[in-house]
Amino acid sequence: MTKLNEKIAVQDIGLDGLTAAGGLAVSRPSRLAGKVMQTLLLGTATFEDNDSYRYLTKLVDTEDVMVEPSAAAGFTAIAPIMAQFPTLAGKDVTHIVWATGGDMMPESERQLDYELGQKSLTKINNR
After folding, report:
1. Among 52, 50, 57, which residue's Cα sits nearest to residue 24?
2. Where are the domains of the chain?
3. Which regions of 1-127 does DSSP assign to beta strands (E)?
4. Residue partners of 68: CB distance under 8 A and separation at least 6
5. Quick one: DSSP state of residue 88?
6. What is the pLDDT of residues 70-124, one digit of tens each?
7. Which phi and psi (to 5°) does residue 67 adopt?
8. Which GO terms describe its biological process (predicted)?
9. Exposed (0-12), middle (13-18) or buried (19+): which is 71, by Cβ within 10 Å?
10. Which fold has domain 5-125?
11. How far is CA 125 from CA 39, 54, 61, 81, 103, in A?
């Protein structure tokens, strides 16, 4: 979004780059990726790991689909991107989240991720 491509890292904007979403844990884009994405990228969003875990848990509970935390991160971007484009409010908009990876995770790791999402949801519901 900054058009700085490989000349900027997440640490430059106050983020630490540490995340449970391992598939997204790249702190600095490559020169090639930055140039290719210039015409493809609509918006960006940052998120807390707990947000990703909540969506992971909701996806299991509603669709019986398990994904890894980095795949569930795609759901965290919907509301912020819609806020960036208020002209889309109230329109029939389809959101597609590319979500993969849950079947390759060990069962113990899937259970732990699910439980972290449950705890996070419980905290929100008790507020």
Report:
1. 52
2. 5-125
3. none
4. 21, 22, 23, 56, 100, 101, 102, 104, 105, 113
5. G
6. 889 889 988 888 888 888 878 888 888 888 777 888 999 999 999 999 999 998 8
7. -125, 165
8. alpha-amino acid metabolic process
9. buried
10. Rossmann fold (3.40.50)
11. 40, 12, 16, 24, 29
